[in-house]
Each structure stands twice: as structure tokens, then as C-alpha cells.
Design brief:
0% strand
């Protein structure tokens, strides 16, 4: 299920990148335990929409999870 969602989001981003699609892909990547990829997507979402508060929360969550994994 996550692999299909990730593939759809990859296609959506290839067609028309947006902060929302990067944010959603970041969420899927977190569910798949791809913390680094999720952080990259949250960074991209913030770059496209610097006022996207949820993307900052997601990025903060990746920092928290990465700290727990070390």
C-alpha cells in the first residue's frame, strides 16, 4: 500500500511539484521508516511554501526520530 502511494506521489511531483505533494510523500516515507527521505521532502515543502507549518512539524519529527535511532 505504501509503495503504491509513494509511486503515485513520485509521479505527481514529476508532473507538478508542490509543497503539498512533497509533504504527503514525506509522511509516506516516515511510515516506511525512510527518515532521511522524509526530511528531504519536508525541506522541499518548506522551500516551496515557507509558511507551511505542518512541514516544519514533520521535519522536526524526523530530527526527533533520527535522534532516537542513534
Amino acid at each position: 500500500l505504501h509503495a503504491e502511494a509513494l509511486a503515485d506521489l513520485d509521479r505527481a511531483i514529476a508532473l507538478k511539484p508542490s509543497s503539498f505533494t512533497h509533504f504527503e510523500r514525506g509522511r509516506v516515507r516516515l511510515l516506511r521508516r525512510d527518515v532521511s527521505g522524509a526530511r528531504d521532502d519536508f525541506d522541499a515543502a518548506i522551500g516551496l511554501s515557507p509558511r507551511f507549518a505542518s512541514a516544519y512539524f514533520g521535519r522536526g519529527l524526523t530530527h526527533h526520530i533520527a535522534g532516537q535511532l542513534q
